[in-house]
């Protein structure tokens, strides 16, 4: 879609963009959402793709993902053999309600900052205990835990002119056992709920991440595997106003799914058969 309010596109911003941020500005990366709807409040686009940020850097520290990394690039990543969650990265890419053409343009950072409940890049980075590096217009930077970044439907902690620069996933999380559950109303539909559980090798701990069914990511952490009642009580303790309500699912339905899938996950990681 043409955005007819735009009067300027900054094609070659400085290496640390944002010092001249003003009302009506927007960061431009893949643009798959930006150009999908009217944006009457925007006047200027600042193109981040020209900055040439590294897309993916794997090493002993873990995985570093540049915010402008495309979904296609992440999907194609060949992970080290000891990164047991490698397939989970691809599964999360497949959770997009998007065609391969969108994959070639849409970015990991763009999906995260949109802060939509069904954003799969939010799901996987929160589940894998990532941190986000944010750049401020004054040249400073800060780091936030992925689980704290999204605060509500389409709301996040970014201040005006602040930008998501990088996502860091620690190697310890990449080596964990995992399982996941996802429900959609149609085969290729938007997620009604997306849950990922991880477990430290040689331990019986549990880190359960709920997204899509809630307005922001919810994590339930246990030092040892809980019994069925304890886990159900933890799910039931999620505040009623946190469950998301849209055409893809009512809050009570999403709550029911979370209970059901949480027990399946518990039994699976405890070594039984769901």
TrEMBL record:
Residues 1-174 form the FAD-binding PCMH-type domain. InterPro entries: Diverse_Substr_Oxidored (IPR051312), FAD-bd_PCMH (IPR016166), FAD-bd_PCMH-like_sf (IPR036318), FAD-bd_PCMH_sub2 (IPR016169), Mopterin_DH_FAD-bd (IPR002346). Transmembrane segments: none annotated. PANTHER family: XANTHINE DEHYDROGENASE FAD-BINDING SUBUNIT XDHB-RELATED, XANTHINE DEHYDROGENASE SUBUNIT C-RELATED. This is FAD binding domain-containing protein. It comes from Gordonia rubripertincta (Rhodococcus corallinus).
